[in-house]
Design goal:
376 residues, alpha+beta, Chitinase A, domain 3, five-stranded antiparallel sheet, 16% helix
Length: 376
């Protein structure tokens, strides 16, 4: 009996040894994978992760990297750079640090192949506490461009935004904006924006004389009549355009009207600089001729060999009073983040639909890249 037992043990040992030799010969990676240390995520690493995001309140799924969450299949893992600095450049191409703070904190310390529940993540570490909505208040200069206005949201949908200018009584003397938005849905510039009278020629020369629920009436008193600008200044009023030239532009006014007149000499060149994408651009305006109330000029710059020919008005006359709107209706959603996103964020609001929500993530780490070590 003992002999048979010994023989059986010997046979088992021989079979196991043969199997080991076979497996090593076929695929040594099996044993390497069994005994190698699993990589752990640290700040500064990159990782491929799959996830399912749920509202903590009711466990409803709002987002997932999987195509089919019921069996966790399909889709593409999230390529994440584990950093709390959203401006930091990832050491690995295609990886981003664009996930919320609570998610980042939760995956630090996770190992390759591990699955973990992260959360509930509170709103302050998710997409913000205060969701941008009707009643939200912020300050922006992108309604009457160049003029800070405090506005309240009166309507906000996925398609557009409507605002009302508030706290008007707190404004003293101000510089008139160069343009005011009208209908940003229009493809016609004259319908998109309104060009008020060019009171902005004189800084802080405008003040409010009447306020109603729907508009604000202002008046302007010029602060000087000669030497209106030290540089060439572009002025628009309605469909009319004027260039104010240094030393040759004057203003006069009475109780109701203001007149600005430019008297450059034919053949004169005026040079100035403008900031471009790659630095300062040198611009030259040449006076070709003056016919009646029209000045014909040629404009050149040091970046483009092609000149621009332009007719501008020699004289502009406009009212000393103007009415500004208090309501801005139906601003398209495509402009909200571009124009107002930073101002909304400064006021403490979030444009994310997930703002104000506590969130939970089920995360599986598929691959870890120790880029934190490579950078040291």
């Amino acid at each position: 009996m003992q002999t048979e037992k010994f023989a059986l043990i010997t046979l088992v040992v021989i079979v196991i040894a043969a199997l080991v030799i076979f497996l090593v010969a076929v695929n040594t990676n099996i044993f390497e994978n069994l005994f190698k240390e699993k990589l752990t995520i640290s700040e500064g690493d990159c990782a491929d992760v799959n996830y399912i995001g749920r509202y903590s309140l009711n466990n409803t799924i709002f987002e997932s990297s999987y195509s089919f969450t019921e069996n966790k299949s399909g889709g593409t893992p999230l390529k994440i750079f584990v950093s709390f600095d959203t401006n930091e450049t990832s050491p690995k191409t295609g990886y981003s640090s664009g996930m919320i703070e609570g998610f980042m904190e939760g995956i630090i310390g996770m190992q390759e192949g591990q699955t973990k529940i992260i959360g509930p993540i509170p709103p302050e570490k998710a997409y913000g506490v205060n969701k941008f909505s009707i009643g939200s208040i912020f300050t922006t200069e992108y309604l009457a461009f160049g003029m800070n206005q405090t506005v309240e949201v009166i309507n906000y949908t996925s398609e557009n935004l409507s605002l009302k200018w508030i706290n008007v009584e707190d404004i003293g003397n101000f510089t008139m904006p160069q343009l005011v938005i009208n209908d940003l849905n229009s493809l016609n510039e004259s319908d998109m924006v309104t060009y008020p009278p060019p009171y902005y020629i004189w800084e802080n020369s405008t003040h409010i004389i009447n306020i109603t629920d729907i508009n604000v009436t202002v008046t302007s008193t010029p602060t000087k009549s000669t030497n209106l600008s030290d540089v060439v200044k572009d002025v628009r009023y309605g469909e009319k355009q004027m260039l104010i030239f240094p030393g040759v532009s004057t203003a006069s006014w009475n109780d109701t009207m203001i007149t600005v007149e430019c008297a450059p000499s034919v053949g004169e060149n005026y040079t100035f600089q403008m900031e471009g994408y790659d630095g300062m651009i040198n611009i030259t305006v040449h006076i070709n001729n003056i016919t009646g109330d029209i000045i014909n000029v040629t404009i050149t710059n040091d970046l483009s060999p092609e000149p621009t020919y332009l007719d501008v008005y020699k004289v502009l006359t406009f009212n000393r009073t103007f009415t500004l709107p208090r309501y801005y209706y139906n601003i398209p959603s495509m402009y909200i983040s571009y124009f107002y996103g930073e101002d909304i964020e400064k006021a403490g609001y979030s444009l994310s639909p997930l703002a104000g929500e506590s969130l939970t993530y089920e995360v599986t780490v598929e691959k870890v890249y120790k880029t934190s070590q490579e950078s040291n």
